[in-house]
Design brief:
alpha/beta; 38% helix
């Protein structure tokens, strides 16, 4: 690190758990962020400010006025712009040293597989089961840790799926793709603005811990947040030997 980086990241370097070695791991890492909306906004903010070397921001949507209640990457002036490009512009102002790749596309198949293969960590900030399952399959295939978050109404959840560990479950162990789950969208059900900030910030924290190789991740645990009463519930999740993805 140069003198400017030592100063910028000094509060990380002061931490025994991170230090210079951990910060250098963060600077060398590549995060793939799927979704630049409510969850992707705080995720991208904190990854960029912490010095994540490369952030690939994927979103095929454009900024809408209804997004601005919670999607803090974007501004009123950018309504109509691609979210990925808007996010890149914001992150460049926060930390111009971070390389941000903005992709306005719905990645799937081989394209998704290749992006996951290149990543140090993947953060799923999407809002539908089809995307979550596709991202999970690619992460299992390439053994890349996945940090998954979700938020709707006043309820949030977060977990880490890291199949580099023999006992760690994947997303499909918890939500089998062959089962039908009700798809709920904030466009019809609503979402509490700070909730996505809480969950997204925790996703960024888990990703930074993973790439810096510090602490214990949420692998094997699902955290549920009831924001009405601000109560957390922790549930242990075991690997399913019969899982259609990682079993």
């Amino acid at each position: 690190m140069n003198d400017n980086q030592l100063l910028r990241y000094s509060r990380h370097i002061l931490l025994d758990e991170i230090g210079i070695e951990g910060q250098e791991k963060i600077l060398a890492a590549n995060a793939l962020v799927i979704g630049a909306g409510g969850l992707g906004s705080p995720v991208a903010f904190y990854l960029a400010s912490a010095g994540m070397g490369r952030i690939t921001l994927v979103d095929n949507d454009s900024v809408d006025l209804t997004n601005l209640q919670r999607q803090i990457l974007h501004t009123t002036e950018r309504v109509g712009q691609p979210k990925a490009e808007s996010g890149k512009e914001t992150l460049a102002r926060i930390n111009p040293e971070v390389e941000v790749v903005a992709l306005k596309e719905r990645v799937e198949g081989e394209r998704l597989s290749e992006l996951v293969r290149q990543a140090s960590v993947v953060l799923d900030c999407s809002d539908n089961f089809a995307t979550r399952h596709a991202v999970n399959r690619a992460c299992v295939q390439h053994k890349v840790p996945l940090v998954s978050g979700a938020a709707i109404r006043m309820d949030g959840q977060i977990s880490v799926f890291d199949t580099r560990g023999a006992e760690s479950p994947c997303y499909a162990c918890l939500f089998p793709p062959e089962q039908q789950f009700e798809e709920v969208l904030c466009s019809t059900m609503g979402v509490f603005a700070p909730l996505v900030g809480i969950i997204g910030t925790m996703q960024a924290a888990e990703a930074l811990k993973l790439v810096a190789d510090i602490g214990e991740s949420l692998a094997g645990r699902l955290l549920l947040l009831d924001a009405r009463n601000m109560e957390w519930t922790s549930i242990r999740v075991a690997r399913n030997a019969a899982c259609s993805v990682c079993g």
